[in-house]
Design brief:
This is DUF1918 domain-containing protein. This protein has about 70 residues and is mostly beta strands. The protein has one domain. The protein contains no helices and five strands. A hairpin with an 8-residue loop joins strand 2 and strand 3. It is globular. It starts with 7 loop residues before the first strand and ends in a 9-residue tail after the last strand.
Length: about 70
């Protein structure tokens, strides 16, 4: 998994009815784009995350998929 500042980190819901959690990567703390990442949540707070298998990186140049 590799990210750059400005990408979105999408953590998929683990149970039926739970929505995806989308955060913005504000700092890449690993080497060459690898985790951990400092992310900003929609409410403004920040946290350091090392994404697991339920996460994906949505690069800022990729179009968002709806559906």
């Amino acid at each position: 998994m590799r990210a750059t500042v400005g990408d979105q980190l999408v953590q998929h819901g683990r149970v039926v009815g739970q929505h995806d959690q989308i955060t913005e990567v504000v700092e890449v703390m690993g080497s060459e784009g690898t985790p951990p990442y400092r992310v900003r949540f929609p409410d403004g707070h920040e946290a350091v995350m090392s994404p697991g298998p339920d996460c994906q990186i949505r690069h800022h140049e990729e179009p968002q998929r709806h559906g």
